[in-house]
Model the fold of this input.
Amino acid sequence: MIDEQSSEQRLRRLSWRCRRGMKELDVLLQPFFEHRYISLSAEQQACFEAMMAEEDVDLLDWLVNAVPAPDNYAPLIGLILELPLA
Done:
């Protein structure tokens, strides 16, 4: 029961972190989190959580391919960009 609660709290915090305050990031990150995060491997989930600690300007640059994403984030960026926009 405690693990379930801490897991739910972790997911709620992460969901909140996907709301970045930049519309462009919100449009990409929130749907990815809602539809794909739970099906990621534990390693991919940890990578996503680490990526959410990065600066908004860096995330935006990586997601619009203005700057190549760091090697550790590149596969995840690819998964995010595969999700069709609503």
Notes: Residues 27 and 51 are 16 Å apart (CA to CA). The chain has one domain: 2-82. The mean pLDDT is 90. The helical segments are 2-17, 23-35, 42-51, 56-63, 74-82.
